[in-house]
């Protein structure tokens, strides 16, 4: 028995324990064997390390369920990263037992952790095999679980993960609707992004003030030298998005939460505007720099009052929704992140419980900070009315999106996106 056969047998034995089944077989076992089939077709001369990485791509995946992490975009990314680490560790142990040396084990680990995608030929080869396996064996069932408007974005992301050679082969081998085939062809033409576009909701009844506000913000972000031109557009002003975007732009959503707008409506609007392959970044409310910015603005207000920050109650006010938990979830997660800096962090919402008027009642040494990107009706009308009703007498800060430091934070995130493969 060769060491490759030994490694394959060990991976299959592990995956055979999967309690989930497909076509009468353990699902992970079937997935691993399908990965090998696609690898043999795409890369028949692959060395043993790539063969093992393909076979072990999802080893024991069921042991870390998706719901082990928060059911939002950050949680999904954390889950994927941890899965990659566990896959690399488990496959590495199997390879060591089969007689592979440290250099081979390290190569397999880099592939399984996706380190160097688009730069490392090994990692890219594995990604091509993954994408072909998904398209051939799983795409049809997956489409049945997704709204039709989300599928172009999913196909676009799949195409961009693949190498140019793999995209060409996919177009030749798979029958796909012209809408999807076009996304594969667009991916080959896309180079470095031509611009970044900051997109906000806007105000449908009076679109001009909010359109001007996001254009002013874009100019301020551009002044911070993010590495490319920056434009602004609202969804409320007719034609604004189409005028701002290019097929190869980066889109920074000036939204507070990852929900229906960022996952469904914004991709649909971008497709209508002629930019179906635009890269959508994570929204303002999940920006990595936001917690530090909030702490800094609260500290400024606390210092003015002569309050130690550790004795301050921070009131975070957000939109909320009766239909979606996205705003509530991101606000609660942000409150948890911020809590070590304050005596406590309280959350209140415009459109769901706990309502702002209830959350703000009887607070001492409290600072109100609105989790809104721009100054709109909720900030100018609903929030002050709720605070007045609660008898709130602490400092009332501007929406965090209007902080003078916000443009530099956004520029930093755009620059970081540009540096990624």
Please summarize what this structure is.
By secondary structure, the protein is of the alpha/beta class. It has helices spanning 3-15, 27-42, 48-55, 73-98, 102-112, 121-143, 151-161, 164-173, 178-189, 207-222, 240-244, 260-272, 290-305, 326-338, 356-359, 377-390, 406-418; strands spanning 21-22, 25-26, 196-200, 230-234, 250-253, 279-280, 313-318, 344-349, 366-370.
What would you note in describing this structure?
The chain is 53% helix and 9% strand. It is α/β, with parallel strands linked by helices and 421 residues long. The strands form three sheets. The protein has a four-stranded parallel β-sheet. A three-stranded parallel β-sheet has the order 8-7-9. Strand 1 (21-22) and strand 2 (25-26) form a beta hairpin. The longest helix has 26 residues, at 73-98.
Task: Jot down its keywords.
4-stranded parallel sheet, 421 residues, alpha/beta, 17 helices
Low-confidence stretches: none
Distance from first to last alpha carbon: 40 Å
Category by helix and strand content = alpha/beta
* Helix percentage: 40-55%
Number of strands: 9
Average pLDDT rating: 91
Beta-strand proportion: 5-15%
Side by side, the strands of the main sheet go 4-3-5-6
Radius of gyration: 25 Å
**3D shape:** globular
Please tally the helical runs, counting DSSP H or I stretches of 4 or more residues. 17
